[in-house]
């Protein structure tokens, strides 16, 4: 029997029995973890508030073996809130839907429990912090998060050089299957010709050029979001359920 301590973001919760919950977290040191929190649905629970979606918390786990991830789910025995990001997200529809899509994306990219995914974890913490503070439009924060999540998982799209032959851009055609923009000679069936403004916006979101991103026109933001959604869908092999509710 062992005790473990890690900080993590609560991705989702599921009811268990009359008073318990199964909590899914993305942690710094152990990747995605599912654990049982006993009694958190009771009104007198002392640590239930720290185990709500979007919460950033320091969590103590109790596991029956020498490893946190074993045959049975560990128990959450103690929590300390680091940052209640849900307070600034859950009360605003645009932020809430964008944040929910971010949580789902993080879970999809960390399907193997117990495998550290530090870059994905740090991306999620930073994205939720920015979203909760309202520093930029929620849909732009979401698209930036999606692009960077793709990048840290080895699927970075190209927005300048041809993704197939490497010829220097700008290149006009875009193909999700090819990996981003492609030149005329490498054009493949199914490729599209997005506006140069939409491609420039996506490049700015990927690199963190918020001055450029914040100045974009709504029509170019919508076009860019469509490309991001299609690219993510291709690499995840199925879309995110939560994306359909995101305001553009």
TrEMBL record:
Q: Which UniProt keywords apply?
A: DNA damage, DNA recombination, DNA repair
Report the residue ranges that make up the DNA replication/recombination mediator RecO N-terminal domain in this protein.
1-83
Q: Does the keyword Membrane apply?
A: no
Q: Which domain of life is it from?
A: Bacteria
Q: Which Pfam families match?
A: RecO_C, RecO_N
Report the sequence similarity comment from the record.
Belongs to the RecO family.
HAMAP family from the entry? RecO (MF_00201)
The name on file for this protein is: DNA repair protein RecO
The gene for this chain is recO
């Amino acid at each position: 029997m062992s005790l473990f301590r890690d900080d993590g973001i609560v991705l989702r919760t599921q009811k268990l029995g009359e008073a318990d919950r199964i909590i899914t977290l993305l942690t710094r040191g152990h990747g995605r973890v599912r654990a049982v929190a006993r009694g958190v649905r009771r009104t007198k629970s002392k640590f239930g508030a720290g185990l709500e979606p979007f919460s950033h918390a320091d969590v103590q786990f109790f596991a029956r073996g020498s490893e946190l991830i074993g045959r049975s789910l560990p128990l959450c025995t103690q929590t300390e809130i680091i940052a209640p990001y849900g307070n600034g997200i859950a009360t605003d529809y645009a932020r809430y839907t964008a944040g929910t899509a971010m949580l789902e994306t993080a879970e999809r990219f960390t399907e193997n429990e117990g495998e550290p995914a530090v870059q994905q974890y740090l991306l999620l913490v930073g994205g939720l912090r920015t979203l909760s503070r309202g520093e930029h439009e929620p849909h732009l924060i979401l698209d930036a998060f999606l692009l960077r999540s793709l990048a840290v998982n080895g699927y970075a799209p190209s927005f300048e050089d041809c993704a197939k032959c490497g010829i220097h851009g700008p290149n006009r055609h875009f193909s999700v299957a090819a990996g981003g923009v492609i030149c005329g000679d490498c054009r493949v069936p199914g490729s599209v010709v997005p506006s140069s403004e939409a491609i420039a916006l996506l490049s700015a979101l990927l690199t963190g050029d918020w001055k450029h991103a914040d100045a974009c026109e709504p029509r170019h933001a919508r076009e860019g979001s469509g490309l991001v959604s299609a690219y993510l869908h291709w690499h995840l092999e199925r879309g995110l359920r939560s994306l359909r509710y995101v305001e553009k």
